[in-house]
Amino acid sequence: MAGEPRNRRGDSSSDRNAQKGDTTEKVVFINRCAKVVKGGRRFSFSALIVAGDHKGRVGYGFGKANEVSEAIRKASDSARKSMVSVAVQENTIPHEVIGEFGGGRVLLRPASPGTGVIAGGGVRAVVEAAGIKDVLAKSLGSSNHANVVKATIEALRGLRRRQDILKLRGKETR
């Protein structure tokens, strides 16, 4: 714990970025679960991680283990396996979109250059990992970290570029 950077909440592990090849990983949430046994409490941990290559590919992973580091390792392996491609257009998104997963709802809107990522928590982690630099976001439904991350990825998967839509309709691009 000593020497690690701390964020506003004092949580040292959620601000840690790990570089594996060209993918960046960000710990979104670590949960501690206690099981009461004869000798006291037995703790286990679960970790939610977002991984991305900053070039339009992003994924999330969830890992459980008796140690925090093992849970993070399992989650990062899962995140790398679940990466999907998203439509990024000049450091922002092509159009406004709403993503839903369970009770989580996320609204993403394109922003002009220089705006930055106006988002919080899991939404920020996902859009930064995807390589989006200018976006406005609002989490509308549940504040459950896992559902917010999944809803954000669903929203990004629903994005389509203008030229892709025109090609599907058989029209010429201008």
What does this structure look like?
With 174 residues, the chain is α+β, with helices and mostly antiparallel strands. It folds into two domains: 13-84, Double Stranded RNA Binding Domain; 87-166, Ribosomal Protein S5, domain 2, CATH 3.30.230.10. Strand 3 (40-52) and strand 4 form a beta hairpin. The chain has four helices and nine strands. The model is unreliable at 1-19 (pLDDT under 50). It has helices spanning 68-81, 121-130, 145-157, 162-169; strands at residues 17-20, 23-37, 40-52, 57-65, 84-85, 97-101, 104-110, 117-118, 135-139. The protein has a five-stranded antiparallel sheet. A four-stranded mixed sheet has the order 6-7-9-8.
List the defining traits of the structure above:
174 residues; alpha+beta; Double Stranded RNA Binding Domain; Ribosomal Protein S5, domain 2; five-stranded antiparallel beta sheet; four-stranded mixed beta sheet; 9 strands; disordered N terminus
String of helices and strands: EEEEHEEEEHEHH
Distance between the termini: 55 Å
| Shape descriptor | elongated
User: What's the count of strands?
Assistant: 9
